[in-house]
Design goal:
This protein is α+β, with helices and mostly antiparallel strands. Helices cover 28% and strands 17% of the residues. It contains six helices and eleven strands. The strands form four sheets. It has a four-stranded antiparallel beta sheet, covered by helices on one side. A three-stranded mixed beta sheet has the order 5-7-6, with no helix packed on it. It has a two-stranded antiparallel ribbon with strand order 1-4. The model is unreliable at 140-155 (pLDDT under 50).
Length: 260
């Protein structure tokens, strides 16, 4: 119950509204959680829960003024793109295990195919990789102890994300604990063109470490990985398939902000 809250150019909200908005959002999360609980109970009552593969995730988070803004779609800060990924395997295999490095939503489909025994091969253009072997164990590149965090020796692979919405064209790349964000200089959100964060020391992304140069070894590695990630994304089958969308589907996706 209460007054509706929605994105609006007329909404004059600031730091004083954080508690009110957060409380309303927490209520929505609790409501969703209750219904997920009812679904899990139904699966148990039907005797199919133990054999089921269940994947819980989200497409994005929401900003609650962590970076002086609201909603989602115009930044790539952690509050918007760091989402939960929970897998319940058949027979509750690997229950309680955690993978500490950052993974991607593009990893979900290959993981499901692996766990369901689909031997169709990796489709051309897929950027993700399976996080679990067909036997419900971790691939060799994940190491750790049962019940504890699982680390990747030598650091995790570079991960790339991008956003283009209402004049904001943003790209970001993760490399181990480092994260670089590039934004168009005329973006209406007022984001800096380059931002660099050490997520291990600054998980809230409050201290931009970019000093105006790109000569350091770190930045050279990040830019090289960034260019490679963009090349892979541009050549993916997802990009190719988007050209073949019928007009009605394209219009619906554009209305939702998924196509420009």
């Amino acid at each position: 119950n209460g007054a509706p809250i929605a994105p609006s150019s007329e909404l004059d909200a600031g730091a004083a509204d954080i508690d009110r908005f957060t409380l309303a959002y927490s209520g929505e999360v609790a409501y969703c959680d209750a219904w997920i609980g009812r679904l899990m109970q139904y699966l148990q009552d039907q005797g199919v829960y133990d054999d089921a593969l269940i994947v819980l995730t989200a497409d994005h988070g929401e900003e609650f003024y962590e970076h002086q803004g609201w909603w989602h779609g115009k930044t790539l800060y952690e509050e918007q793109i760091r989402v939960p990924l929970i897998l319940k395997l058949p027979g509750s295999r690997m229950a309680g295990r955690r993978i500490s490095p950052t993974v991607a939503l593009t990893d979900i489909a290959p993981t499901i195919l692996t766990l369901t025994g689909v031997e169709a091969g990796k489709p051309v253009g897929w950027q993700g990789q399976s996080l679990i072997t067909s036997y419900g164990e971790l691939p060799n590149h994940f190491k750790g102890q049962p019940g504890g965090p699982i680390a990747v020796p030598g650091g995790s692979r570079p991960l790339f994300a991008e956003e283009e919405f209402e004049g904001c064209r943003i790209r970001t790349l993760y490399r181990e604990n480092w994260k670089i964000i590039l934004a168009n200089e005329d973006n209406p959100r007022g984001l800096e063109p380059v931002e660099l964060y050490d997520l291990e020391q600054d998980p809230g992304e409050q201290r931009n470490l970019w000093d105006g140069t790109s000569t350091s070894a770190l930045m050279s590695v990040l830019i090289e990985d960034f260019d490679e990630a963009r090349r892979i994304a541009a050549s993916s089958s997802v990009a190719a398939q988007s050209k073949d969308l019928d007009l009605a589907t394209r219009e619906r996706l554009e209305a939702l902000g998924y196509l420009q």
